[in-house]
Amino acid sequence: xxxVSRSHYAFGQYMDKRRWSSVWHQLDEIIKLAPEHVLEIxxxxxxxKNTASVFGLKVETVDLDPELMPDYVGSATAxxxxxxxYDVVCAFQMLxxxxxxxxxxxxxxxxxxxxxxxxxxxxxxxxxxxxSFQLPKVGIINFLLPKPFSAPRAHEFDxxxxxxxxxxxxxxxxIVADFSKICGLSKTYRVHDNPYHxxxxxxxxx
Length: 206
Fold this sequence. Notes:
The protein has five helices and nine strands, in the order H-H-E-H-E-E-E-H-E-E-E-H-E-E. With 206 residues, it is of the alpha/beta class. It has one domain: Vaccinia Virus protein VP39 (Rossmann fold, 3-Layer(aba) Sandwich), CATH 3.40.50.150.
């Protein structure tokens, strides 16, 4: 079901510097996997696909909303592609827009149509303080310090997100366990400049 209009992605209100930092990580993670053919589910602004093309990545997109001009119009829970069609399948800040059981179903579809890897990012609501310091001959070291005494909050549907990582009943441990039953997790981390975005890189072993 469509949640927002194309105007939601207007540059001034959507593409702030923090989100640009996440786009850098999207590109970095995908480029390191050296894919020939990538599928992005939920292209949003189209920034990832357009920027990826500059670096020689072939990206196709799928979305329910034709207004976003995806390459294919279709549902994330029933992707219109054969098994192992793409080298890498990705979805950035998208799965939380589906009820949790539907998000798992969409992830199964992503795993079905990939030959190698699935890369996703999800909102992580756990409160942290980002810190950085620089050491001579070492460089800048970034780390996140959890805020003390911050208990998980219950999630209330806000018209877009049905759930978020580290909200009550959606701990990171639960999400890692549930998604790892479908595809093996290689790593997960939060973006230092935008800790609300947590990345997960999975490797298909089929």
